[in-house]
């Protein structure tokens, strides 16, 4: 029989959720604090706290007696952020990153694993993901059994059933059954999310877009994609394609969904052709970033970091490349902004730190296209932005289903 709001069991669950929610947002609290925050009677508060202690979500701290206090000292309670952990995964083309976080979102460990090529068997790619997850758990000192839920970010739309739509080869290359693999091997609830949407969740949680209700986050490394929040609510769409901006070839002056890193490499390669103007990008021994960490660096030409480094060193060709990229990004942002009117647009992903140099020309160009354009900023979350969003996705699930997870564990 379905429970009603007046059944003792439903009331108990409601009270437990209310008190657990207060404790998650607070430090140490006593019964008086919880009464003030929830409006519940003292006897109810104490009984619920005892239930939560028994279930492992809450711990009781030593009570400190105040000098003028009479009678028994007040009991002091605290949410136990290590009652379990969550896993966040960023599953990309060339690598996967796994993080383990406690139940307040503090990152306990992070590992990155290079993935086999798309042409490799799915079993090899899944084994690499397994390796990243297990290393992260070991580094965090957490057993697989302590994981309450895992969140995964992927560079593809996710429909309302949690599936990747068909129709694009790139999306289908990523559809190798990662959620099913983790559920089968570990028994965890697993949630799949679009990478740009998770980036928006991360920014709204702890980035420069924290608490901004109307927010657009643009992942613009290899391909442009947006995560969009309107009045604090993530926009999804019928098939999970909100923010995909997949037809940029129709936008004059843009012509391609390629992101900042991809454009920088492409334009730098063109600038290094025989007979082109002299540039640091092609000079032997140039002071550019050819280290192993350069995104997209290859024997074929300069990396995106090389372009940013050459521009910082005063190279005119590199500066023109970045100005051209800024103009293109301004057009993309203008198109999206006319549709959803964000207060703030955040450029996120691995190129974000370098992209700060694009802000002035981008904002100048943006002001030409529309009155009252949105503010534009670069993310401070770096290449962790998607994994942090995956952690937030997992934590939201824990908060909604805390008592069910207690029963599971």
TrEMBL record:
Protein's name in the database: NBD/HSP70 family sugar kinase
GO MF term set: kinase activity
Similarity comment text for this entry: Belongs to the ROK (NagC/XylR) family.
Transferase keyword on record: yes
Organism placement in taxonomy: Bacteria, Bacillati, Actinomycetota, Actinomycetes, Micrococcales
Provenance organism: Arthrobacter stackebrandtii
UniProt keyword terms in alphabetical order: Kinase, Transferase
Stretches of the chain forming a coiled coil according to its record: none
């Amino acid at each position: 029989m379905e429970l009603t709001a007046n059944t003792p069991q439903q009331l108990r669950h409601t009270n437990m959720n209310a008190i657990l929610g207060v404790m998650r947002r607070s430090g140490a609290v006593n019964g008086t604090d919880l009464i003030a925050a929830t409006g519940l009677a003292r006897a109810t508060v104490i009984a619920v706290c005892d239930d939560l202690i028994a279930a492992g979500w809450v711990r009781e701290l030593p009570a400190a007696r105040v000098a003028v206090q009479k009678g028994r000292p007040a009991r002091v309670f605290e949410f136990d952020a290590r009652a379990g952990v969550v896993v966040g995964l960023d599953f990309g083309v060339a690598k996967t990153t796994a993080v383990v976080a406690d139940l307040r979102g503090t990152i306990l460990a992070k590992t990155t694993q290079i993935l086999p090529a798309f042409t490799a068997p799915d079993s090899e790619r899944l084994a690499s993901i397994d390796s990243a997850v297990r290393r992260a758990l070991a580094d965090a000192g957490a057993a697989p059994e302590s994981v309450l839920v895992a969140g995964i970010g992927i560079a593809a739309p996710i429909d309302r059933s949690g599936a990747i739509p068909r129709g694009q080869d790139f999306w289908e290359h990523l559809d190798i059954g990662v959620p099913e693999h983790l559920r089968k091997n570990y028994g965890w609830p697993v949630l799949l999310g679009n990478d740009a949407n998770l980036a928006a969740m991360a920014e709204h949680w702890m980035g420069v877009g924290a608490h901004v209700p109307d927010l657009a986050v643009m992942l613009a490394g290899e391909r442009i994609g947006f995560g969009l929040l309107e009045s604090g609510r993530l926009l999804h769409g019928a098939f999970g394609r909100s923010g995909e901006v997949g037809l940029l070839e129709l936008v004059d002056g843009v012509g391609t969904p390629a992101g900042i890193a991809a454009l920088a490499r492409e334009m730098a390669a063109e600038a290094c052709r025989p007979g082109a103007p002299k540039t640091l990008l092609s000079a032997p021994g140039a002071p550019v970033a050819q280290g192993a960490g350069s995104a997209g660096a290859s024997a074929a030409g300069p990396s995106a970091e090389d372009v940013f480094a050459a521009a910082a060193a005063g190279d005119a060709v590199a500066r023109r490349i970045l100005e051209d990229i800024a103009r293109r990004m301004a057009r993309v942002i203008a198109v999206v902004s006319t549709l959803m009117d964000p207060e703030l647009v955040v450029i996120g992903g691995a190129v974000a730190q370098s992209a700060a140099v694009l802000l002035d020309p981008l904002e100048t160009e943006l002001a030409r296209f529309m009155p009252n354009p949105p503010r534009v900023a670069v993310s401070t979350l770096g290449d962790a932005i998607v994994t942090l969003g995956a952690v937030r996705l997992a934590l939201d699930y824990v908060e909604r289903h805390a008592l069910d997870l207690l029963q599971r564990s």
